[in-house]
Specification:
Layout: E1 8-11, E2 27-30, H1 31-35, H2 38-46, E3 55-60, E4 65-70, H3 83-94, E5 102-106, H4 110-116, E6 130-134, H5 140-154, H6 167-174, H7 177-198, E7 202-205, H8 212-224, H9 231-244, H10 249-253, H11 268-282, H12 291-303, H13 314-319, H14 322-325, H15 329-335, H16 364-367, H17 372-376, H18 387-394
Parallel strand pairs: 4-7, 5-6, 5-7
Antiparallel strand pairs: 1-2, 3-4
Length: 416
């Protein structure tokens, strides 16, 4: 990312995880903020849920556009204000001279953001040079219930009648699974448009900054930056935006928790992988990796065969010495690289953009892979009537694949 520079600086303030225990060791903050010292940053952190202060995720040195992520401000019912938090966001805004304002994308429905004030949370009000946009993405509880309903339709207790093969398509609507996915794609489209057309720096957050925030930052970076569309880059994207920034994999997937009805379980990562599948279906040659990788990741996050997705944050994984005691899923992926490559890959350095947000399709090959119809088709899960299936078939690995074109390397706009 061409960091450090005159505007942004890498800090080891969190090297012992004492500053923010759910953030990574290495963080990037505005240089102006670091110059003001740790006491100032502590005041900013205290005003954010779980101390998750806005931290840099992506930076383009050519345009000076930045993407930051955080949790909600703790303004509460009486709409508390923090002069330090306001000053910090102004520093972020000033780090991009071309930006008229800092755009704050709050992933939540505005009603939910208001309701969070009664629990001590809230959103940014009366912040100079900032404009807030609510993206209407619902909470982990709504998503959990939605997937449960969708699966009940995909897997009926009795064998469906002939001609009922399209039932999952209807189920996707009745369960709201499609509409929930659509709000994520819509939100990502808004953020990418803002960055590409207005050159605005963006702060993205939800309530705690480890669920919907991870979905939005990583999808935005996937579309903006061609490196993240390579196999190596995609692995880094998951490591950085999901694992290092504290998505609670163990809690969301119920690892080691004998309570299938836990209110903290939620398929947030499944949603995100589905969204990646939507983009691969729309741009089948723009990604170096194939759908086999997506399905493998979803299988292994449940299996716990690898240490990568165990525990809830970087600190816990380090304390458990996972690097010494378990194998990383990326070792398996890179050792079997050919299985996960797209033979039709053609590197495109420009951002992937559409004039309108993508329209969600049902990923039948994943959600219905153990359905009655799939079993009758020798477990293939194929469905000739599905447009999503045709997209899937286009990017399956082939034995006689031509050598891939040169892929993008880590550029100035990526990686720290």
């Amino acid at each position: 990312m061409n960091v450090p520079n005159d505007l942004w600086e890498i800090t080891d303030l969190n090297k012992e995880y004492n500053f923010i225990d759910t953030y990574p060791k290495v963080l990037v903050f505005p240089k102006e903020a670091l110059d003001k010292g740790e006491a100032f940053l502590n005041k900013v952190a205290k005003f954010r849920s779980s101390r998750r202060i806005p931290a840099l995720s992506w930076y383009d040195p050519k345009t000076q556009v930045s993407i930051l992520r955080s949790s909600q401000p703790m303004s509460g019912v009486i709409m508390l204000q923090s002069s330090d938090d306001k000053a910090y966001l102004e520093m972020i805004w000033k780090a991009n001279p071309a930006s008229k304002e800092l755009k704050i994308f709050d992933a939540r429905p505005i009603g939910n953001a208001h309701a969070n004030r009664f629990r001590g949370g809230g959103y940014e009000t009366w912040y100079p040079h900032c404009k807030i946009v609510f993206l209407n993405i619902h909470s982990i509880h709504a998503i959990r219930k939605s997937l449960r309903k969708f699966k009940e339709i995909c897997y009926p207790k009795q064998k469906p009648m002939i001609g009922a093969a399209k039932k999952p398509l209807v189920g996707g609507e009745k369960s709201n699974w499609v509409s929930h996915l659509q709000t994520i794609l819509d939100g990502t489209h808004k953020i990418v448009t803002e960055i590409c057309e207005e050159k605005s720096s963006c702060l993205i957050h939800c309530s705690d900054g480890w669920d919907r925030t991870s979905q939005l930052t990583s999808l935005t970076m996937l579309l903006l930056d061609s490196y993240y569309r390579t196999l190596d880059g995609f692995a880094l994207l998951i490591e950085k935006e999901w694992l290092s920034f504290g998505h609670k994999f163990a809690i969301r997937f119920g690892h080691g928790i004998n309570n299938p009805k836990s209110e903290e379980r939620s398929p947030i990562f499944i949603q995100w992988i589905d969204c990646v599948w939507q983009y691969i279906s729309e741009f089948p040659t723009a990604f170096e990796f194939n759908i086999n990788l997506l399905k493998t990741l979803l299988d292994e996050v449940y299996s716990c065969r690898f240490g990568t997705f165990l525990f809830n944050n970087e600190k816990q994984r380090e304390e458990a010495r996972l690097k010494e005691t378990t194998t990383s899923i990326w070792s398996y992926v890179f050792d079997n690289r050919e299985q996960f490559l797209n033979p039709n890959y053609s590197a495109v350095s420009a951002p992937l953009r559409t004039t309108q947000p993508l329209k969600v399709k049902i990923w039948i090959d994943y959600y219905c892979k153990h359905s009655w119809e799939a079993l009758e088709n020798d477990g293939s899960g194929s469905s000739s009537s599905s447009s999503s299936e045709s997209s899937f078939q286009q990017i399956q690995p082939q034995r006689a694949a031509p050598p891939p074109p040169p892929k993008p390397q880590p550029s100035e706009t990526t990686k720290f």
